[in-house]
Structure formats: structure tokens, C-alpha cells
Amino acid sequence: MKTTIIALASLFSFLSINAQTHSHAGAQPLSYPDIEGYVTLKTDLHMHSVFSDGKVWPTIRVEEALRENLDAISLTEHLEYQPHKADIPHPDRNRAYHLAIEEAKEHDLLIIPGSEITRSAPIGHNNAVFITDANQLLHEDAKDAFSTAKKQNAFVFWNHPAWYAQSPAGTPILSDFQKERIKKGELHGIEVINTVDYSEESLALALENNLTIMGTSDIHGLIDWSYTQKGNHRPITLVFAKEKSIESLKEALFSGRTVAVYNELLVGKAEYLKPLLQSSIEIVKAAYIEKTQVLEVELKNISSSDLLFENAMPYTFYDSSPVFEIPAGESKILKVKTLEKLNTLTLQLVALGAYTAPKVHPTIKWKIIVE
């Protein structure tokens, strides 16, 4: 009997320790700084539940978003593809949105009504968000679905354009159908990051056609299983809005004020990406080592992305590679050999994990006052 009690006590201790370890692993909230003139909203506007081809109830999507400190989400259920219909019949295509908004009513999380217009190539998959009624988007002719979305003042973006199931070469092809939608003001954005894929070709299309740059998780299962347990956080779109509201978020998306983020990868137009990176690094202190011309500069990364930089100054570093990383939430001290003592220094770094165009990294500058 004594042996049994000891064994049970050991078992309960083991389970308790493992349960605590498991429940907190990878559950860190995401944080990115505001930029001048705008608040930075963390959004994921492409996800699914059991009301299309997802594997979870809509309330789980809300709970996951709250845990990760997101500001806005949209459950964009497939309109035409309903594999769970026999088990979960729902004539109202707005049902997932209603369940999510009920779950989020006591929280500061924006729930954006949306749906996915799901067709084969050359039309592809497209999300319409800020819609007023998903049921009205159900049309046999895809052109009618897009025109109805426009009548509802929806923001529409092209999903996973490089998806090899629809584009076997793994590169996006802008079809005549999509060109017509852009011309008619019925297609406004494009995913350059979808799940784990970053498409340089999609970024090129975004810049060539003035489409808003998007990053999304396109989550079907659990965020934990697909991302956090693998050491990643979900892809998101940072939206630079005038305030945290549905109206302001919508205006910012139509204006193209976004940066797509996946872990250490950041993709966006220079006018938004550069101030984001500049705000993500805090200059803690800058002072010369006594009796030297070596300036110690302490930098702190206040974002949730590990940031990789390369020195772009005429001055070199002491005791450091010209290429270095500052992990999320951590600090690094650079020792800059300025050759003579300076009162101010313009720190110039190339952000190697960031892209303003295919294979183009931005150079970020900080003006430092020496103590």
C-alpha cells in the first residue's frame, strides 16, 4: 500500500510538472511598437473553423488571439467549400462570425466579418473582409461574388497566390480575371506571406499593382500545433491605423499601410517598414569606454521579432561581427571604433531580415547623442 501511494504521488507530481510546462510553452503575447502618427494593430485576417474546413470551434480562434495579444481577427470561412456540412449544417454563412463576436464581447479584440471566395485558378481564393452579409456573396459566377463584395464596401485580397496546388511552378500568375478585378476596384490586397511561405513574386505583384501587402496564418488546426510548438509565432499583418477601431483598420488597409511579419521576416513598403524597424530598436545608452575612442552603444529590441542587422557605417566594430542579431526583447552592446570622440553618431544598419522589394533590404538610421 505504501509503495502504491508513493508511486501515485510521483505520478501526480510528474503530470503536474509536465502540464505546467506544456500549458505555458510558446504562449507569449506579440508586441510591436507604434510608429509616428499611427498605432500598430496586430491582425490575422485569414483563418478557418469547423464552419468551413477548419478543425476548431470559432471561440478557440478568439481565445488564441487573446493569448497572443492580437488586435483584430477575421474568420474567413470558405463560402463554396463546406466539408463539415453533414455534421454541422448551417444555412447562415455568418454563423462563425456571430459566435466569435459573442466570445470576444468582453475583450478588446476586433472581430472583422469576412468570407473566402473559393474558386480554382485562374480566379483563385480571395478573402473579402468588412462584409455585411456573407450569404449574399454566394454566386455561381465569381464576377458576381466580387461585385457584391464591392457593394458591401469589402476589402478583398488574393490568398496564397504562389500555392503550388493552383500554380504548379510555385509562382503567382496574375490572370486576366484578376487584372479586371483590380481595374474595377474589386481586388485590393495580396498575401506575400501565407502560413510558412514568403513569395518574392507576390511582393513584386503587390508593388507593381499597388496592392496592400498582407501576411496571414491561414490557420485550420490549432495555432499551438501549427506554430508555437515548432518555435514560431503565426504570420500576421501589422496595420498602421489612426486609432484602434474597425473603421480606422479598414481605412488603413485600403490605404496600404501594412507590414507582413513572420518570425524574423518583415515585408512592407519602405515608408512603413523603416519607421517600424527604427521604433523597434531602443537606444539605451551611448558612452565612450574610458580613455578610448571606442563608443559603447546599447541597443534593445522591443519587438517580438528577432532582428538581424549588418553594419552600414564607415566605422567598424570592436569585438563584434559586422552582421549581428538582437533577439526579441533582448539587448546588445555594440562597440563602435569612431577613431575620434564624437558628440553625436548616426548609427546606420542594414536590416537583413526585412524586405521593401524582392531582395532589397532597408537601411535604418538612428541619431545617437553621446553621453
Automatic annotation (TrEMBL):
InterPro entries: DUF5001, PHP_domain, Pol/His_phosphatase_N, Pol/histidinol_Pase-like. SMART domains: POLIIIAc. It holds the Pfam family DUF5001. Residues 43-121 form the Polymerase/histidinol phosphatase N-terminal domain. GO terms for molecular function: 5'-3' DNA exonuclease activity; 5'-3' RNA exonuclease activity. Keywords: Signal. Residues 1-19 form the signal peptide. PANTHER family: EXONUCLEASE, POLYMERASE_HISTIDINOL PHOSPHATASE N-TERMINAL DOMAIN-CONTAINING PROTEIN. This is PHP domain-containing protein. The lineage of its organism: Bacteria, Pseudomonadati, Bacteroidota, Flavobacteriia, Flavobacteriales.
